[in-house]
Amino acid sequence: MLPFALSTHCLLSPPNVITYSPIYLSRPSDKASDSAEFSAGRNSEEKKTLWDYKDYIQYEKLLLRDIKLRRNKYRVADRKNSIEFKIIKRIKYLYEVALQRYSNDFSLYLSYFKFCKEYNYNRAGSLIQNMITNFSHNPDVWQVAAAWYIRRDLNQALNVIHKGLMIHKDCQFLYSEAIQLELLNRDKDDWPKDTTAQKTNDEICCEKIKTYIQTIFKNINDFQFLLKILKLLEPHNFTKSVQNLIIERLEQYYFDEEFVWDALARREESGHHYGSVDDGQTKLTKFCLTRGIEKYKEGLSKISKVKKSALWILYLDHLMELQQQGDVANVFKKKTLLSALEEASSQVTLEERHFVVWIRLTENEADSLKVLEKVELFKAGVLALIHMLSIAALPESVELWNLRLRYAVMKDQTKEVNQVFKKAILHLKEKSAPLWLTTLRYHTLTSGNEVIDLIYKDGVEQPKEVSDILKPEYIQWLALTKGIKDARKTYNLLSQEKPYCKQLHATMFKIETLELDQDIDEMKTVLKLACEQFGKEDVDVWINHAEFYLDYHKLIQDKYPSTDINEKISEIRRMAENTLKETNNGLLLHDLREKFDLLKSQAAI
Question: Which residue range or ranges hold the U3 small nucleolar RNA-associated protein 6 homolog C-terminal domain (predicted)?
Fold first, then answer.
């Protein structure tokens, strides 16, 4: 007789096809080869470990899943109930036997519980009770139990949570679940009525939540959890007194936490105000913004010096977010941000993004004052001061130096441009490429070729990160202003200087192709030099060399009639393969061959 798994598989195989999938023949454990072997081993139950049971159970689950997939794939419905039911019944049996021997394993209980839920076994309820009895010390048990009862009976779920809180007084999840359940339950009329005071459901619910909060104060020291509960209560206006209680706790015991003040300020801004406020003002945007700003300032006056910098950063970042929204109260937001930036700069070290925004906002202010002919006030005063402060604080910031240089360019003072540029490259070194380009653009408009040539000559001597950008720019400028001869002369010098620059060769080749009187030998020299310098690391330099013979074969054969283009390409390929073989880089070699084969298939000479 075939083992059960094999017989099941045969039933699910397509007509006239018998195959044995590895999933039915392999085992998760080498202690057995199929489920029949596990059944035959009942006489040696004591030898089976917990992991044996878990492995066998997992195997049966995989078998069940695979049968379902095959039924869907081949649209087979034969013996559907009997086959799946036997496997499910067997899994249930394995769980029951395992739990009798290993009743102290919570993960086994939890796995069985999930299995019963999935297949609608009534056993799930009794498993919850067993888990509570055996594992009440584990907070996860109460979470599972609460989740189970919530779908069936809110009051029963609350009772379970209350029992769990008696044991786990510091379990944040249980408190959070209890408060949420009380909020869900407030619309019901099954709470005991206060016949003397005739309290409403809202009042009863608020008192219950207040009791939870006071217990949390005693047992949990975590401001993040209090902020989470505060966020949970925000939509429920009837809990305003409880929310105020939490805020008082936060301000009294966690006044030195920057995230507390940030959260409280954002609450005020969103219309959830602390204390008594005129209802008519709560919806006014400017009023809410002012309340939020006042809360940030209150925090800055109370927080310690050590934490003040962090709160300033949160405050400024939030003001910058508001500035980006740009819907209402734009003038108020802008003035507040500028004022805050100025005040913060005198107390803490700002970050790059703050200086950038500060400079740009001030520049916009200066532009708006042109009508009143007061722009010089900003150019000579406030804006220059901000630049000075920002660079002093962050001397290696590329963006701040670039803004400072741009400011000098806008003033059109060559001496100041040169001074700022020299200071910038001194600090930025290999990161200074953007400033070289800005300075060159400025002098292109304001200075003679001699000045520009000197800047380029200095630039190509800089670190590779800068020279790799300026070398191609330089020969392109030379070709445009002084002609091809000067460009070739400088190229021949620069191309031999280390570190080599790959883009220099590409730019020079492009310049040669744009000449009216194209020189085949000069073009070939550039491509050949690129292969010599970068052929061990870049496949494309070889492909470019080969494409040159295809694209300019007529021009080449006009000058050298005996040239065999195909032979030249084959020669380049041999040289490329030999060069790459020396590097032992199989991936590059494979890429090279693929590209040459593609080039050969597309060639039409």
Answer: 294-554
Distance (Å, whole) CA 112 – CA 94: 10
Taking the C-alpha atoms of residue 300 and residue 199, their distance in angstroms, rounded to an integer, is 41
Whose tokens are 């003033």? That residue is 411
Question: Any residues with CB less than 8 A from the CB of 88 and at least 6 apart, and which?
Answer: 64, 119
Exposure of 154 by Cβ count < 10 A (0-12 exposed, 13-18 middle, 19+ buried)?
Answer: middle
Q: Is 326 left (phi over 0), alpha (psi -120 to 50) or beta?
A: left
Considering only residues 128 and 184, tell me which one the structure prediction assigns the higher pLDDT.
184
Contacts of 556 (CB under 8 A, 6+ apart): 520, 549, 563, 565
| Torsion-angle region of 235 (φ positive above 0: left; ψ -120 to 50: alpha; else: beta) | alpha
Q: What is the 3-state secondary structure (H, E, C) of 126-193?
A: HHHHHHHHHHCCCHHHHHHHHHHHHCCCHHHHHHHHHHHHHHCCCCHHHHHHHHHHHHHHCCCCCCCC
**Distance in angstroms (rounded) separating the CA atoms of residues 488 and 482:** 11
Q: Are 335 and 302 in contact (CB under 8 A)?
A: no
Query: What separation in angstroms does the CA of 203 have from each of 206, 238, 569?
Result: 5, 8, 90
Residue 427 parent element (H or E): helix 414-428
Amino acid at 28: P
CA-to-CA distance for 522 and 508, rounded, in angstroms?
10
* HEC profile of 469-534: HHHHHHHHHHHHHCCHHHHHHHHHHHCCCCCCCHHHHHHHHHHHHCCCCCCHHHHHHHHHHHHHHH
- Cis upstream peptide for 499 (omega within 30°): yes
The string of pLDDT tens digits covering residues 530-558 is: 999 999 999 999 999 999 998 898 898 88
Residue bearing tokens 């419905």:
77
| Eight-state DSSP code of residue 461 | T
d(CA 264, CA 267): 5
pLDDT one-digit tens code per residue, 406-460: 877 877 888 888 888 888 888 888 888 998 999 999 999 899 999 999 999 999 9
pLDDT band per the 50, 70, 90 thresholds, residue 17? very low
24 phi and psi, to 5 degrees?
A: -90, -25
591, with CB counted inside 10 A (0-12, 13-18, 19+), is middle
Contacts of 124 (CB under 8 A, 6+ apart): 113, 116, 117, 148
Q: How many whole angstroms from its chain centre is CA 254? A: 30
Nearest CA-CA partner of 433 in 391, 478, 464: 464
